[in-house]
Amino acid sequence: MFQVRIAVRGYELDLQGHVNQAVYLQYGEHARWQCFLAAGLSPEVLVGAGVGPVVLETTIRYLKELRAGDEVDVTCDFEWGTGKTFTVSQAYTRIDGTPVATVTGVAGLLDRQTRRLVPEPAEKLRALADNPTPLNL
């Protein structure tokens, strides 16, 4: 399972002093892109192939607060099936081991010309990746 560590920045806090809810989505996006980069799938590679990942649905479950000075490990676990979509599960954990959130999402791979989802995105990404292992491929 792929993982990145992110330090909470002061400007990401809301009036209650914890990380704003929208920032959790940014942390998840950052982790997913780092996972893609670890697989050799830079934006240039994807654009050159005429495709790009798209998020179709996201669910966040908050478990504990993240506050200024915290560091959080964010995982990416890609689950592949058949068809045009796949699932990404992400766990957010403080470095002391405390779970703070889970994010699950449904995503796809968009054909940038037709603006339609690519059938069997796992196969397309596997073919483009230098190292498909971070994506569970």
Structure summarized in a few sentences:
The protein is an alpha+beta fold and 137 residues long. The chain contains three helices and six strands.
Radius of gyration: 16 Å
Largest sheet geometry? 6 strands, antiparallel
Number of strands: 6
Uncertain segments are none
Question: Can you describe what's shown?
Answer:
There is one protein chain. Helix content is 23%, strand content 38%. With 137 residues, it is an alpha+beta fold. A hairpin with a 4-residue loop joins strand 5 and strand 6 (116-117). The radius of gyration is 16 Å and the shape is elongated. The termini are close together.
Per-chain topology:
Layout: E1 2-7, H1 21-38, H2 43-48, E2 51-62, E3 71-79, E4 85-94, E5 99-111, E6 116-117, H3 121-128
Antiparallel strand pairs: 1-3, 2-5, 3-4, 4-5, 5-6
Q: Characteristics of this structure?
A:
elongated; 38% strand; 6 strands; alpha+beta; 137 residues; six-stranded antiparallel beta sheet
